[in-house]
Design goal:
By secondary structure, the protein is mostly helical. Helices cover about 75% and strands about 5% of the residues. It has helices at about 1-5, 25-55, 60-90, 95-130, 135, 140-165, 185-190, 195-230, 235-260, 270-295, 295-320, and strands at about 15, 95, 175.
């Protein structure tokens, strides 16, 4: 609170340019992103509901998947509503506090998702490499701890970066050439020294990406070696199928992150960065529930059972009314 009172930039406002350089595409983009957000909300909340009400999905794998869906829903909800608003209104400003809060929440959920995918990789490692000890190893206590870890580190990382953003001063034109308040665009419009904040952000981002990828690559190397040693082709196919959805989600998520890291910092790269950020913050949260539902037999079977039960219930209700 004292930091906010001492910061004269708290009354500043930012202008999120978003995709305003394409005026003819504002309505089509609004309809497109609204559709994507609707699918994201229905898909992720639907996945959570299906896992909660289906006893056959009460396993560690789906426990982690429900938290991934929760993170995706929260991440998209932090970013997309403001993006949709800016596509249909003339005033694209956001207050300093609003911008900082959006960054704070987006950072928490982005970091949480990074390590939630690593936790899910460890779960697949235990399931494939130690199937007989799976239930004993993946106890409720361990699963709760593995889920708490990504959330805790996400909060710590986000609060640390936010603290140093609050020490910056902003003056003059605060035009942000993006649709979301990311760390890089916030410091780019600051009129004070941003060296410490930028170095800290780079260090945390590198630690998150490298450590999570090391965990994922190590676990999948062990999984691959174990699968190759399996005597039956059926066993190998089953093992690979249990990892296929997770591998797809990892490839899309980390592929996008690494792509954004590799984009050169120049005026011509802003559109590429915006499209990459859009895919990272808006599209991926929509894709994850689709990947896990379309490629997963257990989820599809649970959905079929729920639909059948619902239809039977509706038929009974209709029959009762006729009587």
């Amino acid at each position: 609170m004292l930091l906010l009172e001492g910061n004269h930039s708290t009354g500043a406002t930012f202008t999120l340019l978003g995709f305003s350089e394409y005026p003819d595409l504002q309505i089509p983009l609004f309809l497109l992103f609204l559709t994507v957000y609707t699918i994201t909300v229905v898909g992720n909340l639907g996945m959570i509901m299906i896992i909660r009400v289906s006893p056959q999905l009460h396993t560690p794998m789906y426990f982690f998947l429900s938290h991934l869906s929760f993170v995706d829903f929260c991440y998209s909800t932090t970013v997309t509503p403001k993006l949709l608003e800016n596509l249909v209104v003339e005033d694209r400003t956001i207050s300093f506090i609003g911008c900082i809060v959006q960054f704070l929440l987006a950072c928490i959920f982005a970091v949480s998702e990074t390590f939630m995918l690593a936790v899910m990789a460890y779960d697949r490692f235990v399931a494939v490499c130690n199937p007989l000890l799976y239930k004993a190893v993946m106890s409720q206590k361990l699963c709760a701890s593995l889920v708490a870890g990504p959330y805790t580190w996400g909060v710590v990382s986000s609060l640390t970066l936010t603290y140093f953003l609050l020490t910056l001063s902003f003056c003059g034109s605060n035009i942000i050439n993006n649709f979301v308040c990311e760390h890089s665009v916030i410091v780019s419009v600051s009129c004070s020294d941003t060296y410490i904040s930028q170095v800290l952000c780079f260090a945390i981002a590198m630690f998150n990406e490298v450590s999570s990828l090391v965990i994922i690559l190590t676990t999948y190397i062990f999984i691959f070696v174990t699968v190759i040693k399996m005597p039956s082709a059926g066993g190998r196919q089953k093992a690979f199928s249990t990892c296929a959805s997770h591998l797809t989600a990892i490839t899309i998520f980390h592929g996008t992150v690494l792509f954004l890291y590799c984009v050169p910092n120049s005026k011509n790269s802003w559109l590429i960065i915006k499209v990459g950020s859009l895919f990272y913050t808006v599209v991926i949260p929509m894709l994850n529930p689709l990947i896990y539902s379309l490629r997963n037999k257990d989820v599809k079977e649970s959905v079929r059972k729920l639909i059948n039960h619902s239809m039977q219930f509706c038929q009974r209700c209709g029959f009762s009314k006729e009587i």
